[in-house]
């Protein structure tokens, strides 16, 4: 896959030209029977292929660098979204716990007031109940010895 856009860099273009020029020189040397132009042409071809290959490798390295930078940016963005989502959920949970705590606190307070009001209405019965409970607890603890 070539990515979004594919442009040849300077080394790829110059390497391709050098390769073609070397082929031409080798062909002319072969036609004229002169070994030196053939040899120089072969050298130009090899150098052109090497330069073009270097250009492709350089382009690929740049693309990998860009892709890596984009991947890291995406990962950082996902991390920020995850953090924000967790923070939002944590706040919602905290708010729910605080709200329930207040409701339970009011309920306990109301029930405590109701028990207190009954105890005040029936002072004699309440004192007798407390005395019986204290006697029973004392009796149970004394039997353990």
Automatic annotation (TrEMBL):
SUPFAM superfamilies according to UniProt: Hypothetical protein YjbJ
Tagged with keyword Transmembrane helix: yes
Domain of life where this protein originates: Bacteria
Record-given protein name: CsbD family protein
Residues annotated as transmembrane: 124-142
InterPro entries named among the record's database cross-references: YjbJ_sf
Organism: Methylobacterium brachythecii
Alphabetic keyword roster: Membrane, Transmembrane, Transmembrane helix
UniProt-listed Gene3D superfamilies: YjbJ
Chain spans, region Disordered: 66-89
């Amino acid at each position: 896959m070539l990515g979004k856009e594919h442009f040849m860099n300077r080394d790829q273009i110059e390497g391709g030209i050098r390769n073609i020029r070397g082929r031409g020189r080798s062909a002319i040397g072969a036609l004229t029977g002169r070994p030196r132009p053939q040899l120089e042409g072969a050298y130009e071809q090899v150098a052109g292929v090497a330069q073009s290959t270097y250009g492709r490798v350089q382009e690929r390295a740049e693309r990998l660098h860009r892709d890596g930078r984009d991947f890291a940016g995406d990962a950082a963005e996902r991390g920020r979204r995850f953090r924000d989502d967790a923070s939002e959920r944590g706040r919602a949970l905290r708010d729910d716990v605080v709200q329930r705590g207040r409701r339970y606190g009011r309920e306990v307070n109301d029930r405590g007031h109701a028990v207190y009001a009954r105890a005040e209405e029936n002072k004699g019965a309440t004192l007798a109940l407390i005395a019986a409970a204290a006697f029973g607890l004392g009796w149970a603890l004394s039997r353990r010895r």
